[in-house]
Amino acid sequence: MLSARFQYDHLECGCDEAGRGCLAGPVFAAAVILPEKFEHPLLNDSKQLSETARYQLRTEIEQCAVAWAVESVDHAEIDRINILNASFLAMHRAIDQLKTVPGFLIIDGNRFNKYQQVPHQCIVEGDAKYFSIAAASILAKTYRDDYMKKIAEECPGYDWLNNKGYPTKKHREAVLKLGYSPYHRLTFRITDPQLSFF
Question: To 5 degrees, how large is the angle CA 37–CA 15–CA 152?
C-alpha cells in the first residue's frame, strides 16, 4: 500500500501532471491535499488503473480531499515555454486554486520550479509511493481525458478518443495525412525514424 505522507510537520499537498508526452492538447496538472491518515486499498498511479477505476476514484478523491484543484497549460503556451516549464506552470496554477494553503509539496518526478516560499520534495515515481500524488495523477489524467474526448468531436480524424493525443502510430499517420489540427503542439516531432509511413 502507498504511504499517507512524506513528512508530518506541515500540511502536505501532492502534485502530478498528465499529457506531457502528447502531440496535441494541453498538459493538465492536479494538486491534492488528503486527510493526514488517509488510506485507500485501490488508489494507485493512474497508469496502473483501468479507465473505469480512475473515474470511480476521482469521485472518491474529490469527496474526501481536504482540498483539490486541476489546471492546465494549452498547446500554444507549451510551444512558447517548452513542455517541462509548462508542466511546472500547470502545477503552480493548480496550487494557486487550492482553498487550503499547503505547507509542503511533494512532486512526482525529479524536477520542479519552486512555488513561492513553500518547501517541496521531488519524488521519482511518487505516484506509486504516496496517496496524494496518486490522487493528483488520477485527477490530472481524467480531466485531461475529458478534454481530449471533447475536442475529438471537433477533430475526428486523429483518433483522440482512443489515443488522447499521445503519439501512437495511427495518430502520427493522421497528422502526416491531414496536417496539424488547431490543437497540435507545433514544436513536437511527429515522425519517428523507426516507423515507415509510405
Answer: 125
How far lies 118's CA from each of 11, 106, 113, 153, in Å?
11, 11, 11, 40
Alpha helices of the chain — where are they, by DSSP H?
Answer: 51-64, 75-81, 83-96, 131-154, 160-163, 169-178
pLDDT in tens, 145-189: 999 999 999 999 999 999 999 999 999 999 999 999 999 999 998
The C-alpha atoms of residue 21 and residue 27 are separated, in whole angstroms, by 9
* Bridging pattern class, strands 27-33 and 12-18: antiparallel
- 75-112 pLDDT tens trace: 999 999 999 999 999 999 999 999 999 999 999 999 99
> What pTM does this model have?
0.95
How far apart CA 42 and CA 65 sit, in angstroms, is 16
Q: What grid cell was written down for 64?
A: 474526501
Whether the CB-CB separation of 123 and 130 falls below 8 Å is answered with yes
| Domain architecture of the chain: domains with CATH | 12-147 (3.30.420.10)
